[in-house]
Specification:
Layout lengths: L7 E5 L8 H12 L4 E5 L6 H16 L1 H9 L10 H14 L3 E4 L5 H11 L4 E6 L6 H4 L9 E4 L1 E2 L4 E2 L19 E4 L9 H8 L5 E5 L20 E5 L18 E4 L18 H6 L4 E4 L3 H10 L3 E3 L4 H13 L3 E3 H6 L4 H13 L7 H10 L5
Parallel strand pairs: 1-2, 1-3, 3-4, 4-5, 8-9, 8-12, 9-10, 12-13, 13-14
Antiparallel strand pairs: 6-7, 10-11
Helix pairs in contact: 1-13, 2-3
């Protein structure tokens, strides 16, 4: 490995966590290979008013799925809520370091990169990452990618396959027979969609439920359970945590923990977990993820060989994700699984499909560092 590799910036957004978590996973794995990598979140450059608006949208979309669907169909640029001084400071710091290599997870970064390129008068090496099986809204609203930018697909509806992969860690998937009879139920980083309705429907089943909640009001009394079987649990990200506040100026993984049940009357288990993807630890021990098919969920699903029971998607991109997961045999719609009596055998078949699949493509962080070492980037 060369003694020094050129620096890399991973440009992401905290919206939903779907493009935030993979940025952190890539950073961790590239650093382990000797690369100098920083992660920058778009929201860290917002004005105070812009951040407040962001939080209001998050709360509104969590409460009203129809409103979230409407907002997703009409993505807006971020120019009006950017802090000009923060942007100028960031671009100046990049120029001082001679930064030329960027991994881009949100299309809303492209106008800033255009300004930066004009400032430094040099070509940039851009990898524009696709978290969905079709072009995501933040890139779609920007139009064509800059000349010379490389598209990085994790999975593609057009090609009907997985392409690049982002491992979560180096462990092999937990064997299905060794997993507890549990389901992870969640609505993505913003808690959007029909996950609470799904949880209510599953309350009549014999599955133990690990639900990611977004407020104590979503925690419900425990059900009568087999005394020899697992109990229901509730998990959450620490209240008040924001992507732009994580670990000071350096973005970090969400502080994720288990909440006390209704009888406890308190929240417990919240602690900062540097370098950890806490939800993944729960998922890899479960038999399925019950969720809408967001890109972050598919990364967790693929890395852990855990099937997804597909809830209603948020927009066209998630619709394509769900269709692809069903076609590849990695997921099943909630309606179909319900008709099958919430069958464990069906989930076992889907898990086996992960183990039989051909590798779709290279390990993206390893591939990127190899290109840095070979001088194939800027």
């Amino acid at each position: 490995m060369p003694a020094h590799l050129p620096p890399v910036a991973i440009l992401t957004s905290g919206i939903g966590l779907g493009v935030y978590m993979p940025a952190l996973l890539i950073q961790r794995q590239m650093r382990a290979r000797g690369a100098e990598v920083e992660v920058v979140t778009l929201e860290g450059l917002y004005t105070a008013e812009g951040r407040e608006r962001h939080v209001r949208h998050q709360q509104a979309f969590h409460t009203d799925f129809a409103l979230a669907l409407m907002g997703h169909r009409m993505p807006k640029g971020t120019d009006s809520i950017m802090d000009r001084h923060a942007v100028a400071s960031l671009l100046g710091a990049w120029a001082d370091r001679g930064l030329r290599n960027f991994i881009v997870w949100s299309g809303f970064w492209l106008p800033l990169l255009e300004s930066y390129q004009q400032r430094v008068g040099a070509a940039l090496a851009l990898d524009c990452c696709r978290i969905d099986a079709i072009v995501s809204p933040s890139f779609k609203v920007q139009g064509a990618l800059p000349s010379g930018a490389r598209e990085i697909w994790l999975w593609s509806w057009q090609e009907r396959r997985t392409v690049f992969e982002i491992p979560v860690d180096e462990r092999p998937p937990q064997p299905f027979g060794q997993r507890a009879r549990r389901l992870v139920v969640h609505g993505g980083g913003w808690g959007v969609g029909t996950y609470l309705q799904a949880r209510e429907a599953l309350a009549s089943s014999d599955w133990a439920l690990d639900t990611v909640v977004h407020g104590r009001e979503e925690v419900v009394p425990g059900r009568p359970r087999d005394p020899h079987g697992p109990d229901d649990r509730w998990f959450a990200v620490a209240p008040g945590w924001r992507t732009w506040q994580a670990r000071g100026a350096a973005p970090g993984f969400p502080p994720f923990g288990q909440m006390g049940g209704p009888a406890d009357g308190h929240e417990s288990g919240f602690r900062a977990s540097p370098g950890e993807h806490g939800l993944f630890e729960v998922i890899r021990e479960s038999k399925a993820i019950v969720s809408k098919p967001g890109g972050g969920t598919l990364i967790d699903s693929l890395a852990s060989a855990t099937p997804v029971v597909l809830l209603e998607p948020l927009g066209e991109a998630e619709t394509a994700n769900g269709k692809l997961w069903e076609e590849l045999g990695f997921g099943v719609s909630f309606a179909r699984w319900r008709q099958a009596g919430f069958s464990e055998a069906l989930l076992d078949e889907l898990h086996a499909n992960f183990l039989r699949r051909p590798r779709g493509g290279p390990d993206y962080p390893a591939d990127y560092v190899a290109r840095l070492e070979g001088g194939g980037l800027g």
